[in-house]
Protein backbone atom coordinates (compact mmCIF):
# COMPACT_ATOMS: atom_id res chain seq x y z
CA UNK A 1 0.00 0.00 0.00
CA UNK A 2 2.85 2.40 0.82
CA UNK A 3 4.52 1.95 -2.56
CA UNK A 4 1.15 2.36 -4.27
CA UNK A 5 0.54 5.67 -2.50
CA UNK A 6 4.05 6.91 -3.34
CA UNK A 7 3.57 6.04 -7.01
CA UNK A 8 0.23 7.78 -7.08
CA UNK A 9 1.70 10.85 -5.41
CA UNK A 10 4.40 10.98 -8.07
CA UNK A 11 1.81 10.72 -10.83
CA UNK A 12 -0.27 13.40 -9.09
CA UNK A 13 2.64 15.85 -9.00
CA UNK A 14 3.42 15.24 -12.67
CA UNK A 15 -0.25 15.60 -13.62
CA UNK A 16 -0.55 18.81 -11.61
CA UNK A 17 2.44 20.35 -13.41
CA UNK A 18 1.05 19.35 -16.82
CA UNK A 19 -2.46 20.66 -16.17
CA UNK A 20 -1.30 23.91 -14.60
CA UNK A 21 1.10 24.48 -17.50
CA UNK A 22 -1.76 24.09 -19.98
CA UNK A 23 -3.86 26.62 -18.05
CA UNK A 24 -0.85 28.92 -17.73
CA UNK A 25 -0.21 28.74 -21.48
CA UNK A 26 -3.85 29.47 -22.34
CA UNK A 27 -4.14 32.42 -19.97
CA UNK A 28 -0.86 33.94 -21.20
CA UNK A 29 -1.78 34.03 -24.87
CA UNK A 30 -1.10 37.44 -26.37
CA UNK A 31 -4.78 38.48 -26.82
CA UNK A 32 -5.33 37.92 -23.09
CA UNK A 33 -2.17 39.83 -22.22
CA UNK A 34 -3.17 42.67 -24.55
CA UNK A 35 -6.57 42.86 -22.86
CA UNK A 36 -4.87 42.89 -19.46
CA UNK A 37 -2.56 45.74 -20.50
CA UNK A 38 -5.41 47.88 -21.76
CA UNK A 39 -7.54 47.11 -18.70
CA UNK A 40 -4.77 48.05 -16.28
CA UNK A 41 -3.39 50.87 -18.41
CA UNK A 42 -5.51 52.62 -21.00
CA UNK A 43 -7.95 51.22 -23.54
CA UNK A 44 -6.57 53.68 -26.09
CA UNK A 45 -3.02 52.36 -25.80
CA UNK A 46 -1.23 51.82 -29.09
CA UNK A 47 0.38 48.50 -29.99
CA UNK A 48 3.80 49.90 -29.12
CA UNK A 49 2.56 51.05 -25.72
CA UNK A 50 0.96 47.67 -25.07
CA UNK A 51 4.20 45.90 -25.96
CA UNK A 52 6.20 48.24 -23.73
CA UNK A 53 3.77 47.74 -20.82
CA UNK A 54 3.94 43.97 -21.12
CA UNK A 55 7.70 43.90 -21.56
CA UNK A 56 8.29 46.03 -18.46
CA UNK A 57 6.30 43.55 -16.39
CA UNK A 58 7.90 40.40 -17.76
CA UNK A 59 4.87 39.15 -19.71
CA UNK A 60 6.75 38.86 -23.00
CA UNK A 61 9.33 36.37 -21.72
CA UNK A 62 9.23 32.80 -23.10
CA UNK A 63 6.36 30.79 -21.69
CA UNK A 64 8.58 28.22 -19.97
CA UNK A 65 10.54 30.99 -18.26
CA UNK A 66 7.37 32.68 -17.02
CA UNK A 67 5.97 29.36 -15.84
CA UNK A 68 9.16 28.56 -13.90
CA UNK A 69 9.00 31.98 -12.24
CA UNK A 70 5.31 31.50 -11.42
CA UNK A 71 5.98 28.09 -9.86
CA UNK A 72 9.00 29.46 -7.99
CA UNK A 73 11.83 27.34 -9.37
CA UNK A 74 13.45 30.24 -11.22
CA UNK A 75 14.37 33.71 -9.90
CA UNK A 76 11.81 36.35 -10.72
CA UNK A 77 12.51 38.83 -13.48
CA UNK A 78 14.10 42.15 -12.51
CA UNK A 79 14.35 45.26 -14.69
CA UNK A 80 15.15 48.93 -14.23
CA UNK A 81 12.47 51.57 -14.82
CA UNK A 82 14.77 54.38 -16.00
CA UNK A 83 11.92 56.87 -16.35
CA UNK A 84 10.90 56.60 -12.69
CA UNK A 85 14.38 55.59 -11.44
CA UNK A 86 13.32 52.36 -9.73
CA UNK A 87 13.53 48.58 -10.01
CA UNK A 88 10.58 46.63 -11.37
CA UNK A 89 10.24 42.88 -11.00
CA UNK A 90 8.05 40.00 -9.97
CA UNK A 91 9.46 39.87 -6.45
CA UNK A 92 9.82 43.63 -5.93
CA UNK A 93 7.40 45.08 -3.40
CA UNK A 94 6.80 48.77 -2.55
CA UNK A 95 8.78 49.90 0.45
CA UNK A 96 11.12 46.88 0.40
CA UNK A 97 14.77 47.50 -0.33
CA UNK A 98 16.33 45.67 -3.25
CA UNK A 99 18.78 43.79 -1.03
CA UNK A 100 15.84 42.52 1.05
CA UNK A 101 13.84 41.43 -2.00
CA UNK A 102 13.69 37.61 -2.36
CA UNK A 103 14.96 36.07 -5.57
CA UNK A 104 12.24 33.43 -5.74
CA UNK A 105 8.58 34.35 -5.29
CA UNK A 106 6.29 31.73 -6.81
CA UNK A 107 3.77 29.15 -5.68
CA UNK A 108 6.38 27.14 -3.83
CA UNK A 109 7.23 30.21 -1.77
CA UNK A 110 3.57 30.93 -1.02
CA UNK A 111 3.29 33.86 -3.44
CA UNK A 112 0.13 33.37 -5.52
CA UNK A 113 0.29 36.78 -7.14
CA UNK A 114 -1.84 39.91 -6.93
CA UNK A 115 -5.41 40.25 -8.16
CA UNK A 116 -5.77 43.00 -10.74
CA UNK A 117 -9.53 43.23 -10.05
CA UNK A 118 -9.87 42.87 -6.28
CA UNK A 119 -6.56 44.66 -5.58
CA UNK A 120 -5.62 42.09 -2.94
CA UNK A 121 -3.25 39.19 -2.59
CA UNK A 122 -4.60 36.20 -4.49
CA UNK A 123 -4.02 33.73 -1.65
CA UNK A 124 -6.16 35.76 0.77
CA UNK A 125 -9.01 35.96 -1.73
CA UNK A 126 -8.89 32.28 -2.67
CA UNK A 127 -8.79 30.93 0.88
CA UNK A 128 -11.68 33.15 1.95
CA UNK A 129 -13.92 32.10 -0.93
CA UNK A 130 -12.79 28.49 -0.68
CA UNK A 131 -13.83 28.46 2.97
CA UNK A 132 -17.31 29.68 2.06
CA UNK A 133 -17.72 27.01 -0.61
CA UNK A 134 -16.26 24.38 1.73
CA UNK A 135 -18.93 25.20 4.31
CA UNK A 136 -21.61 24.92 1.62
CA UNK A 137 -20.13 21.62 0.39
CA UNK A 138 -20.13 20.18 3.91
CA UNK A 139 -23.87 20.69 4.36
CA UNK A 140 -24.64 19.54 0.84
CA UNK A 141 -22.73 16.28 1.40
CA UNK A 142 -24.42 15.87 4.78
CA UNK A 143 -27.83 16.03 3.11
CA UNK A 144 -27.04 14.43 -0.25
CA UNK A 145 -25.01 11.33 0.63
CA UNK A 146 -27.20 9.74 3.34
CA UNK A 147 -30.34 10.58 1.36
CA UNK A 148 -28.95 9.09 -1.85
CA UNK A 149 -27.75 5.91 -0.13
CA UNK A 150 -31.10 5.37 1.58
CA UNK A 151 -33.03 5.90 -1.65
CA UNK A 152 -30.64 3.68 -3.65
CA UNK A 153 -30.59 0.83 -1.14
CA UNK A 154 -34.38 0.83 -0.70
CA UNK A 155 -34.86 0.78 -4.48
CA UNK A 156 -32.27 -1.93 -5.11
CA UNK A 157 -33.37 -4.26 -2.28
CA UNK A 158 -36.42 -5.40 -4.24
CA UNK A 159 -35.77 -4.76 -7.91
CA UNK A 160 -38.90 -4.20 -9.97
CA UNK A 161 -41.17 -3.53 -7.01
CA UNK A 162 -43.45 -0.51 -6.66
CA UNK A 163 -40.96 1.07 -4.23
CA UNK A 164 -38.17 0.58 -6.76
CA UNK A 165 -40.17 2.18 -9.59
CA UNK A 166 -41.24 5.13 -7.43
CA UNK A 167 -37.77 5.91 -6.06
CA UNK A 168 -36.13 5.38 -9.46
CA UNK A 169 -38.54 7.85 -11.03
CA UNK A 170 -37.71 10.38 -8.30
CA UNK A 171 -33.97 9.84 -8.85
CA UNK A 172 -34.22 10.31 -12.61
CA UNK A 173 -36.38 13.42 -12.22
CA UNK A 174 -33.98 15.05 -9.73
CA UNK A 175 -30.93 14.37 -11.92
CA UNK A 176 -32.70 15.52 -15.08
CA UNK A 177 -33.66 18.86 -13.52
CA UNK A 178 -30.80 21.41 -13.78
CA UNK A 179 -29.91 23.46 -10.72
CA UNK A 180 -30.95 26.73 -12.34
CA UNK A 181 -34.43 25.30 -12.90
CA UNK A 182 -34.93 23.76 -9.46
CA UNK A 183 -33.34 26.80 -7.82
CA UNK A 184 -35.77 29.19 -9.52
CA UNK A 185 -38.70 26.93 -8.64
CA UNK A 186 -37.65 26.76 -4.99
CA UNK A 187 -37.25 30.54 -4.83
CA UNK A 188 -40.66 31.08 -6.43
CA UNK A 189 -42.43 28.62 -4.12
CA UNK A 190 -40.65 28.98 -0.79
CA UNK A 191 -39.05 32.43 -0.80
CA UNK A 192 -41.38 34.73 -2.74
CA UNK A 193 -44.91 35.98 -2.28
CA UNK A 194 -46.13 34.23 -5.43
CA UNK A 195 -47.43 31.22 -3.48
CA UNK A 196 -47.69 32.96 -0.14
CA UNK A 197 -45.34 30.62 1.70
CA UNK A 198 -42.26 32.77 2.37
CA UNK A 199 -40.65 30.04 4.46
CA UNK A 200 -37.12 31.17 3.61
CA UNK A 201 -36.90 34.95 3.67
CA UNK A 202 -33.16 35.33 4.20
CA UNK A 203 -30.64 36.08 1.47
CA UNK A 204 -27.80 33.68 0.73
CA UNK A 205 -25.48 36.69 0.71
CA UNK A 206 -26.12 37.06 4.44
CA UNK A 207 -25.32 33.36 4.85
CA UNK A 208 -21.67 34.13 4.10
CA UNK A 209 -21.46 35.89 7.46
CA UNK A 210 -24.21 34.27 9.51
CA UNK A 211 -25.77 31.14 7.98
CA UNK A 212 -29.24 30.31 9.29
CA UNK A 213 -32.05 27.94 8.35
CA UNK A 214 -33.80 30.72 6.42
CA UNK A 215 -30.88 31.94 4.29
CA UNK A 216 -28.91 28.71 3.79
CA UNK A 217 -31.49 25.98 3.18
CA UNK A 218 -32.43 26.66 -0.44
CA UNK A 219 -28.85 26.67 -1.86
CA UNK A 220 -28.09 23.42 0.00
CA UNK A 221 -31.28 21.68 -1.14
CA UNK A 222 -30.86 22.88 -4.73
CA UNK A 223 -27.38 21.40 -5.04
CA UNK A 224 -28.07 18.27 -2.99
CA UNK A 225 -31.19 17.37 -4.95
CA UNK A 226 -29.31 17.40 -8.26
CA UNK A 227 -26.48 15.15 -7.04
CA UNK A 228 -28.74 12.90 -4.98
CA UNK A 229 -30.40 11.30 -7.97
CA UNK A 230 -27.12 10.34 -9.64
CA UNK A 231 -25.68 8.69 -6.52
CA UNK A 232 -29.01 6.98 -5.79
CA UNK A 233 -29.15 5.49 -9.30
CA UNK A 234 -25.61 4.12 -8.97
CA UNK A 235 -26.40 2.71 -5.52
CA UNK A 236 -29.61 1.14 -6.77
CA UNK A 237 -27.87 -0.53 -9.72
CA UNK A 238 -25.07 -1.84 -7.50
CA UNK A 239 -27.48 -3.06 -4.83
CA UNK A 240 -29.68 -4.83 -7.38
CA UNK A 241 -26.63 -6.60 -8.83
CA UNK A 242 -25.40 -7.72 -5.42
CA UNK A 243 -28.82 -9.03 -4.39
CA UNK A 244 -28.73 -11.51 -7.30
CA UNK A 245 -25.25 -12.84 -6.42
CA UNK A 246 -24.75 -16.50 -5.56
CA UNK A 247 -23.69 -15.90 -1.94
CA UNK A 248 -26.91 -13.93 -1.32
CA UNK A 249 -28.95 -16.85 -2.64
CA UNK A 250 -27.00 -19.20 -0.39
CA UNK A 251 -27.70 -17.01 2.64
CA UNK A 252 -31.40 -17.03 1.81
CA UNK A 253 -31.43 -20.84 1.52
CA UNK A 254 -29.75 -21.05 4.94
CA UNK A 255 -32.63 -19.10 6.45
CA UNK A 256 -30.79 -15.84 7.14
CA UNK A 257 -33.26 -13.02 7.66
CA UNK A 258 -33.69 -10.52 4.85
CA UNK A 259 -32.53 -7.67 7.09
CA UNK A 260 -29.28 -9.45 7.97
CA UNK A 261 -28.71 -10.32 4.32
CA UNK A 262 -28.98 -6.66 3.38
CA UNK A 263 -27.05 -5.17 6.29
CA UNK A 264 -24.29 -7.75 6.79
CA UNK A 265 -23.75 -9.24 3.33
CA UNK A 266 -25.06 -7.02 0.54
CA UNK A 267 -24.58 -3.45 1.74
CA UNK A 268 -20.77 -3.36 1.99
CA UNK A 269 -20.25 -4.81 -1.49
CA UNK A 270 -22.98 -2.59 -2.91
CA UNK A 271 -21.23 0.55 -1.62
CA UNK A 272 -18.01 0.03 -3.63
CA UNK A 273 -19.23 1.70 -6.83
CA UNK A 274 -21.22 4.47 -5.07
CA UNK A 275 -18.16 5.32 -2.95
CA UNK A 276 -16.21 6.25 -6.09
CA UNK A 277 -19.14 8.32 -7.34
CA UNK A 278 -19.47 10.08 -3.99
CA UNK A 279 -15.79 11.05 -3.99
CA UNK A 280 -16.16 12.44 -7.52
CA UNK A 281 -18.90 14.74 -6.23
CA UNK A 282 -16.32 16.79 -4.29
CA UNK A 283 -14.59 18.26 -7.39
CA UNK A 284 -18.02 18.79 -8.93
CA UNK A 285 -19.21 20.64 -5.84
CA UNK A 286 -16.09 22.80 -5.87
CA UNK A 287 -16.28 23.87 -9.51
CA UNK A 288 -19.81 22.95 -10.56
CA UNK A 289 -21.80 25.09 -8.13
CA UNK A 290 -21.13 28.21 -10.19
CA UNK A 291 -24.75 28.46 -11.29
CA UNK A 292 -26.17 28.02 -7.79
CA UNK A 293 -23.72 30.47 -6.22
CA UNK A 294 -24.55 33.00 -8.93
CA UNK A 295 -28.29 32.36 -8.66
CA UNK A 296 -28.35 32.85 -4.90
CA UNK A 297 -25.52 35.45 -4.91
CA UNK A 298 -23.42 33.29 -2.63
CA UNK A 299 -19.89 34.51 -3.30
CA UNK A 300 -17.89 31.32 -2.94
CA UNK A 301 -15.20 29.64 -5.02
CA UNK A 302 -17.43 29.12 -8.07
CA UNK A 303 -18.42 32.78 -8.07
CA UNK A 304 -14.75 33.73 -7.74
CA UNK A 305 -13.83 31.55 -10.72
CA UNK A 306 -16.42 33.31 -12.87
CA UNK A 307 -15.15 36.73 -11.77
CA UNK A 308 -11.54 35.78 -12.53
CA UNK A 309 -12.39 34.47 -16.00
CA UNK A 310 -14.76 37.30 -16.88
CA UNK A 311 -12.33 40.04 -15.80
CA UNK A 312 -9.20 38.40 -17.23
CA UNK A 313 -7.60 38.33 -13.79
CA UNK A 314 -4.71 36.06 -14.75
CA UNK A 315 -3.10 35.47 -11.34
CA UNK A 316 -6.46 34.78 -9.72
CA UNK A 317 -7.54 32.46 -12.53
CA UNK A 318 -4.29 30.50 -12.27
CA UNK A 319 -4.70 30.17 -8.50
CA UNK A 320 -8.25 28.86 -8.93
CA UNK A 321 -7.02 26.31 -11.45
CA UNK A 322 -4.32 25.11 -9.05
CA UNK A 323 -6.85 24.62 -6.27
CA UNK A 324 -9.23 22.77 -8.59
CA UNK A 325 -6.47 20.47 -9.89
CA UNK A 326 -5.24 19.64 -6.38
CA UNK A 327 -8.75 18.88 -5.13
CA UNK A 328 -9.46 16.56 -8.08
CA UNK A 329 -6.18 14.65 -7.68
CA UNK A 330 -6.47 14.30 -3.90
CA UNK A 331 -10.08 13.04 -4.08
CA UNK A 332 -9.08 10.49 -6.72
CA UNK A 333 -6.28 9.24 -4.46
CA UNK A 334 -8.66 8.94 -1.49
CA UNK A 335 -11.15 7.17 -3.74
CA UNK A 336 -8.58 4.59 -4.84
CA UNK A 337 -7.43 3.92 -1.27
CA UNK A 338 -10.98 3.63 -0.01
CA UNK A 339 -11.85 1.32 -2.90
CA UNK A 340 -9.16 -1.12 -1.77
CA UNK A 341 -10.37 -1.08 1.84
CA UNK A 342 -13.98 -1.66 0.81
CA UNK A 343 -13.01 -4.60 -1.40
CA UNK A 344 -10.08 -6.55 0.09
CA UNK A 345 -10.06 -8.83 -2.97
CA UNK A 346 -8.49 -6.05 -4.95
CA UNK A 347 -4.71 -6.47 -4.83
CA UNK A 348 -2.40 -3.54 -5.26
CA UNK A 349 0.47 -4.73 -7.43
What's this, in brief?
The protein is an all-alpha fold.
Please describe what this structure looks like:
This protein folds into 2 domains: 2-109, no CATH class; 123-342, MetI-like fold (Orthogonal Bundle), CATH 1.10.3720.10. It has 15 helices and 2 strands. The protein has 349 residues and is mainly alpha-helical. The longest helix has 36 residues, at 122-157. Strands 1-2 form a two-stranded antiparallel sheet. The protein is globular. The protein has helices at 2-27, 30-40, 47-56, 63-71, 122-157, 162-176, 179-191, 204-207, 213-243, 246-253, 258-270, 272-287, 290-295, 301-310, 314-342, and strands at residues 78-81, 86-89. The model has no long low-confidence stretch (mean pLDDT 82). Helix content is 68%, strand content 2%. Strand 1 (78-81) and strand 2 form a beta hairpin.
- Strand elements, count: 2
Shape annotation:
globular
- The number of domains is 2
CATH architecture annotation name of the largest domain: Orthogonal Bundle
- Residue share in helices? 55-70%
Strand order of the largest sheet: 1-2
Mean pLDDT: 82
CATH topology of the largest domain: MetI-like fold
Largest sheet: 2 strands, antiparallel
Which CATH top level class of the largest domain fits? Mainly Alpha
Secondary-structure element order, N to C: HHHHEEHHHHHHHHHHH
Based on secondary structure, the structural category is mainly alpha
Distance between the termini: 9 Å
Figure out the total of helices: 15
Query: How much strand?
Result: under 5%
The residue ranges in which pLDDT falls below 50 over 5 or more consecutive positions are none
Alpha carbon gyration radius: 26 Å
- Under CATH, the homologous superfamily of the largest domain reads MetI-like
